UniProtKB/TrEMBL annotation:
SUPFAM superfamilies assigned: Periplasmic binding protein-like II
Top-level division of the source organism's lineage: Bacteria
Designated name of the protein: Phosphate ABC transporter
Record-linked InterPro entries: Bact_solute-bd_prot1 (IPR050490), SBP (IPR006059)
Species in which this protein is naturally found: Streptomyces bungoensis
Keyword set, alphabetical order: Signal, Transport
């Protein structure tokens, strides 16, 4: 019997119940259709995965397919093997215009534009999107109705008004709104204002060399956040990022509003059902009187190792397409509320009546404006920032905001300090990149928040049960 070609696939184990089981089932399904291959899927701690990939590459044994968090995209592009060559090949160039690989239809042209743009540079799709999320606002509509708020806030001013109405309720929630102190919220707040984190169009028109964490848009967001907190409307748990504590506050009805990822949609619905209140969902609010600039995405993508033999490379590429075929992408959305990554997967869910039965699940997709040709394209903030040590810069933002909220630091002064600190991280990254081609695993640091606790899907499930 001819030996099977092994495709090593290293992914982030996101710890949600059933998440890895589903990936292993898909690997087995692919093997059944392609018995000449064996898909070896390994789930790794998402905080350590990029460093482990770098270490494996230095030993000359990188996986054929490697998953990276979106904030590590520039580092993945910069990575070099021990021979000095790029560690990863462009997915688009490897596909080379083919419409199918090993009988698996190529889906890259079906990807939603906002997602394809994020993982592309100069039109070249360098990696294959896997997990995609967007930002949403969630409401305890039962409480909001009692407060006379018939629909979710669409602007920051409306959030304030809703919080004031909730505060006036007899026996109502202790606070009006909460969200985690996490880099995603800074990015989204900049995007809706048309702001950027880095020069050269957020690192898209050229390599980012300067960061600005004290831009007008950043200070506007941080000052509004501080004021909301000082007036007792915003609930800050005092932890970074404390996803668990924030969702528990919503489940316990200690807040009427929570802003968080679309990835939390299933858990938020579970919290509302367990506590017996109606939940409403809307897009991330913008600034009153200003055009809505755009929406960032978060999630992960799959990178193809450079220098694979043709048989291994085709197997890896075919598996990437298989993971994102309409059925599998649709099922990933149903299981985990991740955004359907292709137009075809969205249409399949629509045709099957999923969105009619679960209308709130349409919102993350609609927010990206991505399911009709020409929509969701050409908005720079949607492409997101691209620069080295993105994870470290987000660390800097959250610690600065923590100082503002808990220690009373002055916003402009503290975020000027944060800019200098983040710039030093970027400068160090660039020096290291030039010096050794980003082979040092420390250059791929992805604890993401060095002072943050990890959490698991099981912990979130416990949190949504509530304690009242």
């Amino acid at each position: 019997m001819t030996a099977r070609t092994v495709i090593d696939v290293w992914v982030a184990d996101l710890t949600f119940p059933g998440y890895m089981d589903r990936l292993h089932r898909l690997g087995a399904e692919f093997e059944k259709a392609h018995p000449e291959y064996r898909i070896n899927i390994e789930g790794r701690d998402f905080r350590l995965l990029s460093q482990q990939i770098a270490e494996a590459a230095e030993e000359g044994r990188p996986p054929a397919v490697a998953e990276y968090y979106f904030a590590v995209t520039q580092a993945a592009r910069d990575s070099r093997g021990r021979d000095g060559k790029p560690l990863f090949a462009s997915v688009q160039k490897a596909i080379a215009g083919r419409s199918e690989i090993l009988g698996e239809p190529v889906v890259v042209d079906d990807l939603i534009p906002a997602v394809r743009e994020y993982y592309s540079v100069d039109g070249d799709l360098t990696s294959m999107p896997a997990v995609v999320t967007a930002m949403l606002i969630y409401g305890n509509q039962t409480v909001l109705d009692k407060a006379g708020i018939g629909s979710l806030p669409t602007t920051w001013d409306e959030i304030e008004a809703a919080c004031e109405a909730v505060a006036a309720l007899e026996g109502g929630p202790s606070h009006g709104v909460t969200w985690s102190n996490h880099g995603l919220f800074f990015q989204q707040a900049l995007a809706v204002q048309g702001g950027e984190l880095a020069d050269n169009a957020n690192g898209r028109a050229g390599r980012a060399t300067r960061l600005d964490l004290s831009s007008k848009e950043m200070l506007t967001w941080a000052e509004w956040w501080r004021e909301l907190h000082s007036r007792g409307h915003y609930l800050y748990t005092g932890k970074i990022p404390d996803w668990e504590g924030n969702i528990k506050a919503f489940a316990d009805q200690d807040v009427a509003l929570r802003i968080t990822s679309s990835n939390d949609l299933n858990y938020m619905a579970m919290a509302a059902e367990n506590a017996g209140f109606e939940m409403s969902v809307g897009r991330f609010p913008g600034r009153a009187g200003e055009a809505y600039g755009g929406n960032i995405i978060a999630g992960t993508s799959l990178w193809l190792a450079n220098g694979l033999d043709e048989v291994t490379e085709d197997g890896a590429l075919a598996f990437m397409q298989f993971l994102n075929n309409p059925r599998n992408a649709a099922d990933r959305h149903i299981a985990s509320s991740f955004v359907p990554v292709t137009r075809s997967s969205y249409r399949l869910l629509e045709d099957e009546g999923w969105f009619d039965a679960h209308p709130s699940h349409r919102l993350a997709s609609a927010q990206l404006g991505s399911y009709a040709p020409g929509q969701g394209e050409g908005v720079p903030p949607c492409r997101g920032a691209l620069f080295g040590d993105f994870a470290g810069a987000q660390d800097v933002m959250t610690r600065a905001m923590d100082d503002v909220l808990r220690r009373g630091a002055e916003v402009a002064e503290r975020f000027a300090e944060a800019t200098a600190e983040a710039q030093a991280l970027l400068d160090a990254y660039e020096r290291d990149r030039v010096g050794n081609g980003v082979r040092d695993p420390q250059s791929l640091r992805v604890e993401y928040f060095r002072d943050a606790e990890a959490y698991t899907g099981a912990q979130l499930e416990d949190a949504v049960k509530g304690s009242k």
